[in-house]
């Protein structure tokens, strides 16, 4: 694979062009990652609105019917239900790991077995999340597909 980056101070927006002999699974994965880098979610914190990049979000969790997005150091409130967010993030690196949580698998550092066929997921910031047994196969599929 060859990578070329050209700087042009006359352009208004960054454009990524992929030249390939034939479109395949690897090219599709690359395109998904590029689009994920630029996507964002509208969040709230302290009565202010923010656009948080999807790639900066570690996980999205529902607590007492309220939905929150956690980054490495901040927590923001979302005005959507977890199911709607899951649909919006379908083709990204997010996957459901429990009834109340979506995880960005790009921040998953390691996994270890727990009792009751559950798994402990350690994130790159040292935080731990529990992967429910009902979602272990979906997270494995997501990791294989990335």
How does this structure look, described?
By secondary structure, the protein is of the alpha+beta class. It contains three helices and ten strands. A five-stranded antiparallel sheet has the order 5-4-3-7-6. A three-stranded antiparallel sheet has the order 8-9-10, with no helix packed on it. Strands 1-2 form a two-stranded antiparallel ribbon. Strand 8 and strand 9 (119-123) form a beta hairpin. The longest helix is centred in the first third of the chain and has 14 residues, at 25-38. It is globular. It starts with 24 loop residues before the first helix and ends with a helix. The mean pLDDT is 89.
Proportion in helices: 10-25%
Give the N-to-C terminal Cα separation.
18 Å
How are the strands of the largest sheet arranged?
5-4-3-7-6
**Biggest β-sheet, characterized?**
5 strands, antiparallel
Give the overall shape.
globular
Mean pLDDT: 89
Low-confidence stretches: none
In terms of structural class, how would the helical and strand content be classed? alpha+beta
Task: Tally the helices.
Answer: 3
Oligomeric status: single chain
Q: Over all CA atoms, what is the radius of gyration? A: 17 Å
Order of helices and strands: HEEEEEHEEEEEH
Q: How much β-strand is present in the residues?
A: 25-35%
Strands, count: 10
